[in-house]
Amino acid sequence: MQHAVGSPLPPPHQPGHGPAAGWSPAAHHPGAHPGPHQSSAPVPPPPPGHPVQPAHPTVPQHVPVPPAPDSTGHVPLPPGGPVAAPGAPPVPSAAPDPSATTLAVLLIGPAGAGKTSVAKYWADHRRTPTAHISLDDVREWVRSGFADPQSGWNDHSEAQYRLARRTCGFAARNFLANGISCILDDAIFPDRPVVGLGGWKRHVGPGLLPVVLLPGLDVVLERNAERTGNRRLTDEEVARIHGRMAGWYGSGLPIIDNSQLDVPETARVLDDVLARAIASPPKW
After folding, report:
1. For the chain, what percentages of helix, strand and coil (3-state, to nearest 5) are there?
2. 168 neighbors 140 (Cβ within 8 angstroms)
3. In this structure, are residues 220 and 171 in contact, taking their beta carbons and an 8 Å threshold?
4. pTM of the predicted model as reported, rounded to 2 decimal places
5. Which residues is 132 bridged to in the sheet?
6. Which of 39, 58, 90, 224 has its CA 20 to 30 A from that of 164?
7. In this structure, what are the phi and psi dihedrals at residue 173, rounded to the nearest 5 degrees?
8. 3-state secondary structure of 36
9. How far apart are CA 218 and CA 225, in angstroms?
10. 121: closest CA among 213, 224, 54, 222?
11. Alpha carbon distance 247, 255 (integer Å)
């Protein structure tokens, strides 16, 4: 299943707000005060001639407590990846094996690129536990009140996309925190970096590895024609989406043209691309 983008397509966004400022502890004011087991008996006066030291008043101490570490469930979240699986030996950087590494992968592409099919196959055939998280599936959890972008892109459809991405990101972080890799698929436009790649990076973490699937227009038109229901788009919509996706060329992200590849072959190429990305993460 693919990302269904309606007409009109979502417009480019202006840069959004940055992340919230981090916690900053208050200053610590020194001062002595009796502990729970200290006696409150009066102190005898010093002998004659002994210098008298000024008394230090008891000052209540309010030590600031930092907020709880960023966590999901009962397991602290990893600081971005690739995240080593619990108990797994480190993967040599000279010859990384993506099938034995805990990863978070974002598969990008237009409708009809084969994202969902490749993501499912890749997740099914890995040596380590792996979850597939589809943005469209999560969007369609909303039944009553579902904002279908094919009925027109508006504030409601935009809000539901944002909510689905946050939900997918939460799920991915929880899987990673428990040593389970994940692959997410979404149709992200290169002219919407803040809500696209930037949003996924905020939701999942800086270790997210994005890869673009971009077959030829004739291929995505043929695949789209085989769809049914609200996942099938008009040829005009498919052409517009594919044209905007071409903006990923020159972005620095790895791009796979799977026009002549079946699903298993594309998954093998994806492993090769990820091995290189692990050794030298893309700048994005």
Report:
1. 35, 10, 55
2. no
3. no
4. 0.64
5. 183
6. 224
7. -65, -35
8. coil
9. 11
10. 213
11. 11
CA dihedral angle for residue 143, residue 136, residue 176, residue 191, rounded to 10 degrees: -130
DSSP string, 162-189: HHHHHHHHHHHHHHHHTT-EEEEEE---
Look over the chain and give the mean of its residue pLDDT values, rounded to a whole number: 73
What single letter denotes the amino acid at residue 248?
A: W
CB 245 within 8 A of CB 110: yes
β partners of residue 123: none
Q: How is 215-269 classified by DSSP, letter by letter?
A: --HHHHHHHHHT--GGG---HHHHHHHHHHHGGGTTSSS-EE--TT--HHHHHHH
C-alpha distances out from residue 220 to 162, 163, 171, 238, Å:
25, 27, 29, 7
Pairing type for strands 181-186 and 130-134 reads parallel
CA pair distance 241, 255, nearest whole angstrom:
16
**Which residue's structure tokens are 């610590």?**
28
Encoded amino acid at 169, one letter: G
Helix (H, G, I), strand (E, B) or coil at 84: coil
Query: Per residue in 117-169, pLDDT tens?
Result: 999 999 999 999 999 999 989 988 999 988 877 777 788 888 898 899 999 99
Q: Which CATH architecture has domain 101-279?
A: 3-Layer(aba) Sandwich (3.40)
Would you mind telling me the total number of residues written for the chain in this entry?
284
Extract the tokens encoding 19. Answer: 């992340």
Helical (H) or strand (E) element with 209: strand 209-213
Q: Would you say residue 6 has pLDDT above 60?
A: no
CB of 209 within 8 A of CB of 281?
Answer: yes
| Dist CA 150 CA 241 (whole Å) | 13
